[in-house]
Amino acid sequence: MLPTIFGDAESVLRQPGTKPPGSDTMAHGQEAAASLALLDDEQEWAAFSRQVASQPGQWESNVLIEGMHCAACALTIEDALKAVPGVRNVEVSAGSHRAKVVWEAAAVAPSAWMRAVQAAGYSAVPANDVFARERRLAESRKALWRMMVAGLCMMQVMMYAYPAYVAQPGDLSAEMEQLLRWASWVLTLPVILFSCGPFFSNAWRDVLHRRVSMDLPVALGMLITFVVSSAGTFDPTGVFGHEVFFDSLTMFVFFLLAGRWLELRLRDRTAGALEALMNRLPDSVLRLKPDGQFERVPVRRLQSGDVIRVLPGEAFPADGVLLLGHTSVDEALLTGESRPLSRQVGDEVISGSHNLSATVQMRVDRVGAQTRFAQMVNLMESASTSKPKLARLADTIAKPFLIGVLIAAGVACAYWWQTDPERALMVAVSVLIVTCPCALSLATPAAMLSAAGTLARRGVLVRRLDAFESLAAVDTVLFDKTGTLTRDAMVLNDIQVRQGLTQPEVLAMALALAQHSLHPVSKAIVVAARSAAMPNHWRAEQVTELAGQGIRASVSLAGDADATKDLRLGSASFCGVAQADGNALQVHLSDAQGWLASFELQEDIRPDAQDTVSALQRAGIKVYLLSGDASDAAQWVAETVGIAKARGQCSPQDKLDFLRESQLQGHKVAVVGDGLNDGPVLAGAHVSFAFGQAVPLAQAQADFLVSGSRLANVAEALLLSRRTLKIVRQNLAWAAIYNAICVPLAVFGLLPAWLAGLGMASSSLLVVLNALRLSRDSQVEQDT
């Protein structure tokens, strides 16, 4: 978690320009400067930034932007940060309200570019700030209060406005009508002064900074409506005295606030996977002191080699190995494994997983940026701030569109003014309200962030949001074999024994030797014996392992030292037996009299590999297998999982040539791999997956990182990307149709202000709700 420095600077970062109670402006300015200066300590940078490996001296910081509401705000913040000398790159996401800032340490300090954000009228706080959730909850409560006040006042104002709509001539006296107007005006004041506060404050900030955001036309519409209605109330015989619009004003304020509150809740829900991952580590942990006692220390003070105690319900703060105790751990958010996993002494545990059942002690092996947890956080931060092409297009047209809205409202007002000034102003209000491009700016990021959150819960991390666009167009998938379609380990397939012996007997003998070796073949024999609950009656002494050949030892039955055998387990030449025909991998067991048994092993194909290939083929995807292993081994795996075309003995260049040939034929190709030799082909593919515990090069080149063991995640990601692009197109189409219909109606005076407010709020809400369909945890269905 973050050090307390950010708690000290919280008020400055969260509310720039505000004056603390009991202090003057100068004192507050000094406090702000001092608090921000704390962020310039290089020792604290690692808490909210990381060094850019390819550019020495540059750092990448991820921050939350508070106070932004639209794509125009994102562009404003980007412009403000890019103007700071030393800031090399900036990406601000309107969907996630996050910014990625790449800056050069020798040219600028963090406080400098954070002050630039403040000067633009917003605030920046570290993305994993421990107070971020509390502030967001407070913001949600304030939004709910504003909406409730607006709703209560709206209902009362509607009651007072109702008689004017249904009264016949002569039914309502002038005195009574004026009394109802005054009552409506009084009830509208709380709406204007309290509920509309964010709209007016944001609009005033835009005016001061000479820019345009979505709140400016909305605030203008509210202000014009209130001024016109107030003029009609104070001077019933004047030019605006014919009608008042307090009911329309309170109604569309309520609709706007309701839409924004629901949008805020839904956005928090779609971004929940990222925050849950980033804030998963504890603040402190119990560390063993030299005197044998435990002391509680901040997690950031842990070092490799420390021994710590993790209590039930706590998250493991680092990668390491259990030294004491047996427990169950929850790795669902990190690996996609939904079931609790058993961990005992000697087993590895990963940072960010939860200890569920018992107190344990562990040795810390990796801390900070070296942990798998930190790598996942970095990937998700990058995804949350990246901008897909469609989102960049929407952001680019947002400002010109808003300027066009103001011009259209002015032209419409001028046209109607000649015949009816009161109606002219209300037509302008309708145009200002109905044309706000909220739905357009939310159409793409809302859907892609929702899809990224869904994949994160399943153990698939998205490095770039625009990879969804590429993945949706894929028609060909290339799989690596070892570590992708198969596990790294091998499995025992068959045992052939000498006459007079049984398979359990020879497996027990082999176990006595194999348990002293770390070779993959020995591990496979140990796993097979333990899976069969094989009793270990044999004891091995004088064990010798010869690299590349096998193991020899003197083996005796427990309790019978006279029944001793000199056994060998290994290759045919090492055991003195004839080489078997065929291409299957075999190891042999022999004694002084000769051959005892042969163990045939094969690669451990992932249990969901065949279903994954079938799912891709049903979706119209061509599937190929490219492997550096022998052709017969590659062909055997391909036939087992249902892949018709496979190539073995492929060098990295061979894989890259096959990829380029497919691309020249017009195919959109995805590559799934995990090894060092997969780096070039992963980089050259339209979209790529690094599977399992991929080497760093493979992870660096991949667009998606499958952190769990489910190969089915690849097929689910592809199908989900198709649904995502379908929903993005639906959202964009809805936004276009909505504006095409409502703008002409507003310009011609056929759309009242309250209905314009309802339309604007409904359009944004519909876009977010449509995107939220992607966050369902149910099985991804194929769209046909």
Explain what the structure shows.
The chain is of the alpha+beta class. Helix content is 50%, strand content 20%. The protein is built from 29 helices and 27 strands. The strands form five sheets. It has a seven-stranded mixed β-sheet, sandwiched between helices. The protein has a six-stranded antiparallel β-sheet with strand order 7-6-8-14-9-12, with no helix packed on it. A six-stranded antiparallel β-sheet has the order 17-22-21-20-19-18. α7 packs antiparallel against α8, α16 runs antiparallel to α28 and α17 packs antiparallel against α28. The N terminus and C terminus are likely disordered.
Number of helices: 29
Number of strands: 27
Radius of gyration: 33 Å
Assembly level: single chain
Low-confidence stretches: 1-29, 777-784
Largest sheet: 7 strands, mixed
Q: Strand order across the biggest sheet? A: 15-27-26-25-16-23-24
Summarize the structure.
It is built from 29 helices and 27 strands.
Q: Could you give the topology of this structure?
A:
Blueprint: H1 5-8, H2 10-14, H3 25-37, H4 42-45, E1 49-51, E2 58-66, H5 71-82, E3 87-93, E4 98-104, H6 110-119, E5 123-126, H7 132-166, H8 174-195, H9 197-208, H10 215-234, H11 246-270, H12 272-278, E6 284-288, E7 294-298, E8 307-310, E9 319-324, E10 327-330, H13 332-335, E11 341-343, E12 348-349, E13 354-355, E14 360-366, H14 372-385, H15 389-417, H16 421-434, H17 438-457, E15 460-462, H18 467-472, E16 476-479, H19 481-485, E17 486-497, H20 503-514, H21 520-531, E18 538-546, E19 550-557, E20 560-570, H22 572-575, E21 585-591, E22 594-605, H23 609-618, E23 622-626, H24 631-641, E24 645-647, H25 652-664, E25 669-673, H26 679-684, E26 687-691, H27 696-701, E27 704-706, H28 712-747, H29 753-772
Parallel strand pairs: 16-23, 16-25, 23-24, 25-26, 26-27
Antiparallel strand pairs: 1-2, 2-4, 2-5, 3-4, 6-7, 6-8, 8-14, 9-12, 9-14, 10-11, 10-13, 15-27, 17-22, 18-19, 19-20, 20-21, 21-22
Helix pairs in contact: 5-15, 7-8, 7-11, 8-10, 8-11, 9-10, 10-16, 11-29, 15-16, 15-17, 16-28, 16-29, 17-28, 17-29, 20-21, 23-28, 28-29
